[in-house]
Amino acid sequence: MDILKEKLRSAHGGSVLDIATGGGSLLAYLKECFDDTALLVGIDNSPERLKQAGETVKVDGVCFLTMDAANLAFKSDSFDTVGIANSLHHMRDLPTTLREMKRVLKPGGLFVVSEMFRDGQTQAQRCHVDLHHWWAEIDRLAGISHNETYTKGEIAGFVSDLELTDIFTHEDPHDDLNPVDDKQMKELIGVIDDYPNKINGHSEYDRMTAKGEQLKKRITDIGFSWATHLMLIGRKQQ
After folding, report:
1. Distance from C-alpha of 67 to C-alpha of 29, rounded to nearest angstrom
2. Where do runs of H (alpha helix) occur along 10-105?
3. Coil, strand, or helix at residue 132?
4. Confidence check: pLDDT of 61 > 90
5. d(Cα 164, Cα 111) in Å, to the nearest integer?
6. Is 131 helix (H, G, I), strand (E, B) or coil?
7. Residues facing 83 on adjacent strands
């Protein structure tokens, strides 16, 4: 059992809300960590992603709802645990989203944040950061909210502003993965080849495609590792 699961297993999960749930991976992880989850709710503004989550997360007591993270349709003090994973940089209005998350969290409840950061990474991890920023630029050209990733200090600052108590910090360096794994390389190359199709016909298509070719060369030369993630867990003041 890793240190994070051990930390969460000793806590009360209760009713859990996952913001920008995407494929539902955080909900599934929290379900695995907590011994006691009465309700699991994932919200996202994308019906397509919610459909994917419903197909992949098969656990009792889970439901997925289309909802704006900056305007949560829940009463204050509704959930025992509220979390967000890999989505801070997707928020159009991050300060309001974080305030909404805190509002619907019960006093004494757990606030969970997991987010990759861009600074202090190895060369192979920097390939992930730069690839992610390329994805984000293409998404913005396509009208999708997707900003560049934050620094570790910025993420910690967002959580500090919430005035939580009992802050626990954990970094996952993903250092158990092979940076030159053939299967992973082939999958990444395929994604890079396909991703500019989101903006096919756009005036920036050629430039972004050329940038993708540069990223492919770097990944082939250096290797690829997932960037280190920062996880912060705190409690809403009683």
Report:
1. 21
2. 25-33, 47-56, 94-104
3. helix
4. no
5. 8
6. helix
7. 18, 112
**Tokens 């794994």 belong to which residue?**
181
> What are the φ/ψ torsions at residue 155 (nearest 5 degrees)?
-65, -45
Q: List the domain boundaries for the chain.
A: 3-235
pLDDT level of residue 175 (50, 70, 90 thresholds): confident
Taking the alpha carbons at both ends of the chain, their separation in whole angstroms is: 30
Alpha carbon distance 205, 234 (integer Å) = 43
| Contact between 82 and 111 (Cβ < 8 Å) | yes
Cα 115 to chain centroid distance, Å, stands at: 5
The model's pTM is 0.92
Residue whose entry in the numeric block shows the structure tokens 């867990």? 233
Q: Which amino acid is at 220?
A: T
pLDDT of residue 1: 46
Architecture in CATH of 3-235: 3-Layer(aba) Sandwich (3.40)
20 within 8 A of 84, measured Cβ to Cβ: yes
Please state whether beta strands 37-44 and 62-66 pair in parallel, antiparallel, or not at all (unpaired). parallel
pLDDT at 55: 86
